[in-house]
Design a protein that fits this description.
By secondary structure, this protein is of the alpha+beta class. It has 2 domains: 43-104, no CATH class; 123-223, Immunoglobulins (Immunoglobulin-like), CATH 2.60.40. The chain has helices at residues 43-61, 64-73, 91-104, 184-191; strands spanning 2-6, 9-17, 20-25, 28-33, 79-80, 86-87, 123-129, 135-140, 146-152, 168-174, 181-182, 199-208, 218-223. The strands form 4 sheets. A 4-stranded antiparallel beta sheet has the order 1-2-3-4, with no helix packed on it. Strands 10-9-12-13 form a 4-stranded antiparallel beta sheet. It has a 3-stranded antiparallel beta sheet with strand order 7-8-11. Strand 2 (9-17) and strand 3 (20-25) form a beta hairpin. It starts with a strand and ends with a strand.
């Protein structure tokens, strides 16, 4: 668990400890009892776990010089944490993050840390979802040299706006493709038909084909018709 302290003690937190979870929403910081989700062990879950196992094995198979190079490269890949502070990943986490992105877009894994060169700036446009029909997501800003991951949600309550935990990787397309991207077959295979009146979210993430760097993602939602 990550905690933020003042002179009077912890004022904010993220993560879990001793059966409790600390987080924050638009109403402020909160804590709740941790509930373990069910584990259906779907094909998608098993694939993701197999990838993590493979990346851990890949890290161990590197030479010490290669691991040292990854450890020395982390400052170039710092990210802002939940409290707004810059944090460096570990060398292993950086290796796993970039290579997982590359695997998920069908590119070869890398054994040496690349120089940071950016992740592109794709922007999600208007989304369209029809029960029994087409599912499309418009996009701008994507260019060649990057692959765009399309993340999507199943149909959820129309009143639900926080969709972060509902996104699942759906498919990819090459940067610079004609807009909108038609994802009907991939969506129906993953989620089935969303009910009329439910909300569906799409998130586009740009991944650098060479380095594996990824953008934060651009979201768009729509109501199923």
């Amino acid at each position: 668990m990550k905690l933020k302290w003042s002179g009077f003690g912890a004022t904010d937190g993220r993560g879990k400890i001793n059966g409790h979870v600390a987080s924050k929403n638009r109403s402020g910081a909160y804590a709740r009892t941790k509930v373990s989700p069910t584990n259906p062990q779907t094909a998608y879950q098993l694939t993701a776990r197999a990838l993590l196992t493979s990346l851990s094995q890949g890290w161990r198979a590197l030479t010490q010089a290669q691991r040292t190079a990854w450890n020395n490269a982390v400052s170039g890949y710092a990210r802002t944490d939940v409290f707004g502070d810059n944090r460096n990943p570990t060398g292993k986490n950086l290796y796993a993050r970039l290579n997982a992105n590359l695997v998920n877009i069908g590119q070869a894994q890398i054994t040496s840390p690349p120089l940071p060169s950016g992740a592109g700036s794709v922007v999600a446009g208007t989304a369209s979802v029809t029960n029994g029909g087409a599912k499309n997501i418009a996009h701008t800003g994507d260019v060649a040299g990057y692959t765009i991951q399309v993340w999507a949600t199943p149909g959820v309550s129309a009143g639900k706006e926080f969709l972060k935990n509902d996104y699942r990787l759906l498919t990819t397309f090459t940067g610079g493709a004609v807009s909108p991207e038609v994802v009907t077959a991939a969506y129906d295979a993953r989620f089935g038909e969303p009910a009329v009146g439910t909300r569906v979210g799409f998130k586009l993430v740009s991944v650098n084909d060479t380095t594996g760097e990824s953008s934060t993602g651009s979201e768009s939602t729509t109501i199923t018709v």
